[in-house]
Amino acid sequence: MTQEGTTPAFNFIRAIIADDLKKGKNAGRVVTRFPPEPNGYLHIGHAKSICLNFTLAADNKGVCHLRYDDTNPEKEEVEYIKSIQRDVKWLGFDWGKHLYYASDYFEKLYNCAVELIKRGKAYVCSLNADEIRDYRGTLTEAGKESPYRDRSVKENLDLFHRMRKGEFPDGAYVLRAKIDMASGNLNMRDPALYRIKRIAHHRTKDAWCIYPMYDFAHCLSDSIEGITHSICTLEFEDHRPLYDWILDELQVERHPQQIEFARLNISYTVLSKRKLLALVNEGHVGGWDDPRMPTLSGLRRRGYTPEAIRDFCERIGVAKRESLVDTALLAHCLREDLNKRALRVMGVLRPLRVVIDNYPEGQIEELDAINNPEDLNMGTRKVPFSRVIYIEREDFREDPPQKFFRLAPGREVRLRYAYFITCVNCVKDEKTGEIIELHCTYDPATKGGDAPDGRKVKGTIHWVSVLHALKAEVRLCEHLFTQPIPDEEEADFRSHLNQNSIQVLKPCYLEPSLQSAKSDAYYQFERQGYFCVDSVDSKSNALVFNRSVSLRDTWAKIEKKGK
Ligand code: ATP
Ligand code: MG
User: Fold this and answer.
1) What's the whole-number mean pLDDT along residues 432-441?
2) 3-state class (DSSP) for residue 175
3) Total H helices, total E strands in the chain
4) Are residues 210 and 134 in the same domain?
5) Separation of 261 CA from ligand 2 center, angstroms?
6) CATH assignment of the domain containing 204
7) 66 within some domain
8) 339 & 358 share domain
9) CATH assignment of the domain containing 276
10) Considering 435, 462, 489, which residue would you say is the last residue of a domain?
11) Are residues 291 and 334 in the same domain?
12) Residue of the nearest CA to atom 9 in ligand 1?
């Protein structure tokens, strides 16, 4: 799916596909797949793979399958299956009728294993896991052949059949490919194809007590589905010889081409389901959809749009070399998108009461405010104004430093869409000295924010009428980690957790139009950033908003410097 009118950047995978089409390979078909293992929620790294696979297929009149690689029942759950479909749809992609499960192929895969045994290319091994590891050798040393390698086909068939029937305990036997214990590629040293595991599977229930290994199931699932281009991340490059070996030895009709690309890494976060699961299980975050998480459900709850994520995936491109993408780019893509379409509103996050002494008591005015200066078609709305308002605490300084153009004793500023006000006095708490209230006067001639005498003010600040304010909780999220690569040393990524990754502000006061804010709507709180309703915790009598992203665009600065 190409976004309106833009041509996706050319990359080496597109080049391979274009070449295949030119040569008439695969009878001109392009079939890709996105193959998640349902052992966690999808993250932004998966989004890269989803966008790539679905877009390549669509741009070449092909199809992209969604296939669950559900061969390891120990870690897989139905909750994950559901979340994956929801997230892929939300990103804007459609697998149509092509939803598959590797577990649907268990019988076929079993038959393929039997076929390999018959061809003398697989054997049942009685070594235990430790022994297999010892026999495997190292990168510099050849492995040793298993003493069970030369079992007869008959004996292998019998043992494998009995493995399936459940005659043996877990670990008693494994089915292994018979390849080459001296291969320079460890994956080719008689890798395991099937293991005994007495665990019920979320789909096949108790039908099986042996399960295929990923490498065996994956290539065959691709072949069964007629995948033409099997696109995966670089860590599978060393598995490609095995992928091809299995398909070649079985002389399958359809032999997909595996193509590897570099996985996405983003600074200040981790992108591994195992580590994300640890964050969830150990309570470092509130769940997979915590707005600080790099999961698609977390990003959605945070206020990310599918458009911004697709734009991000397009911009980072596809390459063969690992790299670290600056998280500021992701934020930049969101700002670019929301700037076009977010409704502008006013919300005060750290309130300070202001009484406008000369404004008539009991008077309320409905002032016109522009919904989005970037898109005047979005119209205007009315915002109520009255004698007592909240402004942002940081918009007042009793002793203003140079270049502070906001409110200070004797200073005049513009209240957005309202009036010029001048500060005449600040009231302090007698005990603590904290400023608790300001007194100001307003100039009735400046309604709408302009002075008829042409006098200028340097500062414009936002405000909310106390009488009409909606009380809300606002959550500000920062990076989850304090280090650009938190898992550089595998052992202690937890020690780099940012202890201040979430800041909860309450009470905050918002303009009344936000009472009806929907959880899938996007707002800009003027001068504060982009915000959305928290889809989980917000209630109509207890509003909760998340800041999706601040207005400060560090990426734009980086880009400018680079030019
Ligand atoms: P993780 O390492 O996060 O556990 P995974 O690779 O084990 O991820 P899978 O469910 O097997 O997760 O991934 C499904 C697909 O998404 C695979 O094709 C995988 O290569 C791709 N993928 C996973 N992580 C990334 C990433 N960071 N960047 C790009 N593609 C990714
Ligand atoms: Mg995986």
Assistant:
1) 97
2) strand
3) 13, 27
4) yes
5) 14
6) 3.90.800.10
7) no
8) no
9) 1.10.1160.10
10) 462
11) yes
12) 36
Q: Which of 11, 34, 42, 46 to mutate to test the pocket of ligand 1 (most atoms within 8 A of CB)?
A: 46
Do 335 and 552 form a contact (C-beta atoms < 8 A)?
no
* Residues 353 and 458 reside in one and the same domain: yes
**Number of neighbouring beta carbons within 10 Å of residue 253:** 8
For the whole model, what pTM was predicted? Answer: 0.95
Give the end of a domain, one of 406, 433, 462.
462
For residue 401, give the 3-state DSSP assignment: coil
Q: Which helix (H) or strand (E) holds 389?
A: strand 388-392
CATH code (residue 389):
2.40.240.10
272 lines ligand 1 (CB under 6 A): yes
| Tokens (6 digits) for 445 | 């001639």
* In a shared domain, residues 330 and 374: no
Got the DSSP string for 383-439? EEE-SEEEEEGGGB-SSPPTT--SB-TT-EEEETTS-EEEEEEEEE-TTT--EEEEE
Name the strand (E) or helix (H) holding 421.
strand 420-428
Helix, coil or strand: residue 330: helix
pLDDT at 325: 97
What residues make up the domain containing 359? 347-462
* Helix or strand (DSSP H, E) at 549: strand 543-549
Do 203 and 285 lie in a common domain?
Answer: no
**What's the CA dihedral at 151, 154, 160, 166 to 10 degrees?**
-120
CA gap 196, 163 in Å, rounded? 7
Best residue among 50, 56, 100, 233 to mutate for probing ligand 1's pocket (most ligand atoms within 8 Å of CB) is: 233
pLDDT value at residue 446 = 98
Closest among 515, 547, 526, 338 to 449, alpha carbons compared: 526
Rounded CA-CA distance 143/141 in Å is: 6
Between the CA of 77 and the centroid of ligand 2 the distance, in Å, is 15
Q: What is the pLDDT of residues 297-341, one digit of tens each?
A: 999 999 999 999 999 999 999 999 988 999 999 999 999 999 999
The answer to whether residues 98 and 68 touch, using CB atoms and an 8 Å cutoff, is: no
Query: Is 46 part of any domain?
Result: no
pLDDT at residue 40 greater than cutoff 50: yes
Query: DSSP letters along 222-263, please?
Result: HHHHT-SEEEEEGGGGGGHHHHHHHHHHTT-S--PEEEEEPP
d(CA 293, CA 477) in angstroms, rounded, equals 10
The kind and range of the H/E element at 265 are: strand 264-266
What is the average per-residue pLDDT within 344-363?
98
Q: Sorting pLDDT into bands at 50, 70 and 90, what band is 56? A: very high
